[in-house]
Design brief:
The structure holds three protein chains of three kinds. Chain A has a domain of 204 residues. Chain A has 22 helices and two strands. In chain A, strands 1-2 form a two-stranded antiparallel ribbon. By secondary structure, chain B is mainly α. Chain B has a single domain, classed as Orthogonal Bundle (Helix Hairpins), CATH 1.10.287. Chain B is built from three helices and no strands. Helices cover 73% and strands 3% of the residues of chain C. Chain C has a two-stranded antiparallel sheet with strand order 1-2. In chain C, strand 1 and strand 2 form a beta hairpin. In chain C, helix 5 runs antiparallel to helix 6. Classes of the chains: A mainly alpha, B mainly alpha, C mainly alpha. Chains A and C meet through helix 7, helix 13, helix 15, helix 17 and helix 18 of A and strand 1, helix 5, helix 6, helix 8 and helix 24 of C.
Chain lengths: 508, 100, 618
Amino acid sequence: MDYILSLVVFFPIVAGSFAFLVDAKSVRVFGIAVAIIEFFLSIVLWLGFDYGIDGMQMVEHFSLISQFGMSYYLAVDGISLFLVILSTFMTMVALFALSIEKDIKNLIIAVLFLETTMVGVFLSLDIILFYLFWEASLVPMLYIIGAWGSERRIYAAIKFFLYTFAGSVLMLVGILYMGHLYYETTGIWSFAITDWYQMVLPFNLQLWLFGAFFLAFAIKVPMFPFHTWLPYAHGQAPTIGSVLLAAVMLKMGTYGFVRFSLPLFPDASIYFMIPIAIIATVMVIYAAMVAYAQEDMKQVIAYSSISHMGVIILGTFAMNTEGISGSIFMMISHGIVSGALFMLVGVIYERRHTKMMREFGGLASVMPSFATIYAIMLMGSVGLPLTIGFIGEFLSLMGFYRIDWIITMIAGTGIILGAVYMLSLYKRSFFGPLVNDENKKLKDLNFKEYSALIPLVFLVILLGIYPKPVLDPISSSVKNMIRIMDKKVINKESKEILYKANSIGGGR
Amino acid sequence: MIGLAHYLVLSGILFSIGLFGVMKRKNLLMLFFSTEILLNAVNIGFVAVGRFYGDMSGQIFAFFIIAVAASEVAVGLGLIVLWYKRTGSIDLDSLQMMKG
Amino acid sequence: MEKYLYITLFAPLVGSLIAAFFAAKPKELYTGILTSALVGISFLSSIVLLNYVDADTILHVKMMDWISVGNLSIPFGFVVDQVSIIMMVTVTFVSTIVHIYSIGYMEHDKSFNRFFSYLSAFVFSMLILVMSDNFIGLFIGWEGVGLCSWMLIGFWYHKQSASWAANEAFIMNRIADLGMLMGLFLIYWEIGSFQYDIVFANILNLNINTVTWIGSFLFIGAMGKSAQFPFHTWLADAMEGPTPVSALIHAATMVTAGVYLIIRASDIYFLIPDVGYVIASLGAFVAVFAASMALVNRDLKRIIAYSTLSQLGYMFVAAGLGAYWIALFHLMTHAFFKSLLFLGAGNVMHAMNDELDIKKMGGLYQSMRATAILMTIASIALAGIYPFAGFFSKDKILEVAFNHEAYLLWFALFIGAGMTAFYSFRLVMMVFFGEQVHKRLGFHPHEARPFVIYALTPLALLSIVAGFLEYSFHAFVIDLLRDYKFTLDHSVGWMLIVATTAIALSGIAFAVYKYKRGGFGAGVESLGIYKLLVNQYYIPQFYNNAILKPFAAISTFFWKQIDLKIVDATVDLIGKMFYNAGGKTRQIQSGNLSSMLRWMVAGIAVMLVLAIILRPMV
């Protein structure tokens, strides 16, 4: 159990390197096997996770460049645990459903590399290591979109890469500056985030550094108006790319906010709370409306991701346990639901080679199981209680209600608009008479697709009814984080806001 | 009395001449000569400064440069000869294989 | 006793899941029988619970924790008290009958199994709604019934109109749900819990303004589910669903959830009589507004739907004015006779091959005697004639309005009562009596299967006698709900009863008299008021033109103009700038060595200058 974290991080990349030696015919099985083992490793990690500890645990710390305090530093807490499991789980499920034949070996290797970087991002506590994984994750995704995408794949891949890459550069500057600052105040170099948590920064500096980190995270999330890479990336990516992009890679941005922005720059976070909430609200409504206007089924889901990420941001900046825990839970739920929805679009795309809704209609009568699973995921997406989607959305909105009820109400229209675009998608594609002849002989789901979708359906309902095992560690780690913030806050007003956000009562 | 400044001025002048040559000449051989002038300008500077501070590393550096220059000339001239044999010209503007 | 609670709650779920396994398979009769039996078991065990609950004993269980974060803790907890047991009995009773009825009604439908799965799932959701011991549990049921209603309205999904109506219902409910969620958030942040007992115990400590906000927000939710103006349009469109669904969901149970919420939160509304008065006014308005649309409609099911709307208005008047037990009583009696009315309408539809236009019927009494009698009983009960159930509950509501000195409300309800009597008997007359138009059109109506008729008799029986339960009902529920004190003089009370009965009877008499002779002439249809009513006050058109179309247009505008042409174009512009700059500077890389040397020299010069300017200050 000692090196379980390193094992979870590096197993896919090592095993993936061996895939070069595997025969192209059996590489799919190999990839699935690796993903399953990796998933079980992450489950082992969960089993070994001590619910009693709300801080970091299973720490692995080795000095790499001791002169500059850079180290190999991995640890897990309630916030990152389930994001890791989400990454391994979604990779596994996405590989189950994989149906690409062309250059499959390269694809499998790219996916396994991607898995390592995704898990690495969530587990690294040394920020240089974090940055390494953060940037390295772009490369496999660039390759996946660029090599297996649809017609405009090169444009989409390059846009995705350059946009997110450019955003991160400023973060690097921020990181280096923070490291230098730490050196100046303490006399030793350290890039360990836990060390940085101890550092109290003057307000002005916080604002600047918050800004430097903000851009990188905001582009990754993606927040309005930095979102335009996403529809292209999703529109052009192969199914597996979209699944991993939506399910995991977007969460890196929101995870960054929770892990870095909030505890490192508490005053700045509280200072920017309302402006960011307004952006998030705009994002929720705007993306939902744009989603409604789409004609391409996949684009609807892409824009719906943006809309949901807005709610996550809102919850994150609620500054209370309810809101932040809710936003982390929603990262997981959105990962599962949007991943499943992209997979479902992949199913129909493979059969009809189109994603345009006007080509469909009446699919419910030829593909009943497909329609049923789609409906379940749709309900998860609109946040029906007892599905996984409700809890995160409810808690996020509830958390922010404490800060500002008007913004919450406006952002809450997202639950209405979400129903509008999702139900109209469903109506246009699945309901109505079956008019198009090509749709009349469509086959329902096959074994491969069932094997990928059934676990997702199961999770959507199970975690909707019994979220406790996931929510408990998240909640205690978030509480711990808020304690850190509370200790570090220097402005009196921010202290008051933080206190108010975390208490009950006191009039409107 | 000839002081450090004189040497440095000389070095500067030689350097400028070399630089001018590098920029102006089109003949590869002439370019070589200009580079040699540049190197020697630096040598003079090194030696003068080394002497001024009483530090031997200036002169050691100069030796190094002379050695490097010599080997450079050996290799470079070889290449030029080869080039001349292949194309019949050592005009700089004819070397445009790297045009992007 | 917990055992019975869980049986009541989960028996329908089990049935639903079993039926769901056969959803895509061809009809299996036993799924219908099994789900009916399980709902029946649920009904029987809720009867057991009804006997168990009394003034001192209620049943309160906590099944498990659901969400616990920070200060928040939401369990799956259930409570069986005087209010919820009434709802449970009503819901399971009507559901059992509707299930049995549906075996006959849906017998030729190829999605027979799926139907029963949905129907039982609905019963389960509704039970969650009424049995939960906290607001979030209620909200689960609230959304759950919304989902089931979406699935059932859109049951015949190949019909565009059905799937449109399903989406309309779901979305409209969601709009209202947002209001409700806001209320719930406020409750949490003021009190720190969602448990009814804790909330109601602490609500007194809150600032009255806050309570007003809470009450208003919750009422917005209630408006959506109970289809009150301006959220009423979905209910009439929901008639696209199979008729048993209309009977169960859109008349007897789900739509009354809003009223249930007000009754359940009576401790909150008691503190804010002003909000209560607004609720009552809206209720009275809807009572007349909906009844007026029912007067002219020609669609059999829509007429009954509007009458449901109107009766919900009555319930809200009672609940708003603080007569909670009367609202609950009317809710219960209404469930009996309205589901009977709908199920009877289902028989008629079957007989007429799904024809809904009452102008094409007439004289069906000859061929469908039993159905005609049942529907007449239900109509009399709806009209509120002694000794039928509607008389006892509806009359009380009018008395409450009068007692409250809300004479305007009373007058509205009074007029509404007359309209109700008229349109009910207009329907009965046009369908069952008068000229046999259907023969001319070539229909061959036939009576429904005997077991279907037998299944309806308990409803008919209760529609007649349920009113006499008033005293025991009152005694039972006021252990939990606040009693309502009548200060009216006895003689005034009698006068009111006489007046109401008189207007109801005259409404019936007018309808019978008029439609015996073929009804109004064609001249009526050219009247402005007729057009207004037939077009539902042009409200659907207004929604379509003022909300739906602009929404679609703005959405497209956002996408095509803003997202693609501004946001994305800006990003691309930045990208292109670099790209073009690269294209320009690329010419430097000519491959010409001498120009490269010159650039090198220039570079060195720049660096030298920079080194001098940026040298560290000594």
